Amino acid sequence: MTEDLVQKKCVACEGGMPPLNEVEARVLLAQVPGWELSADAKNIARRYTFPNFAQALAFANRVGALAEAEGHHPDLSLGWGYVLVTLTTHAIGGLSENDFIVAAKIDANE
To answer: Is the pTM of this model over 0.85?
Structure first.
């Protein structure tokens, strides 16, 4: 199933459309193992661990390039040996399919 998301392209999202509800988000979440849904169902996040800062930074840079190509940008928190990636669709104040597409593509390029 993740392959389906990986093959999709993010679609520009404008305000006015509703965010995914929790049930819809959980259906897509099942396709991106390791990601967690926030308590308010407005974002998904995953923490990646690395043996050192250099590898964490290299991963963060790969995520940045991927996000730029998709036009859908996560929040990244970088530190020694970890990168925390958080995805939400700011324009609608919650989750859209785009968040799950980017999550699947990040995982495919881990």
So the answer is: yes
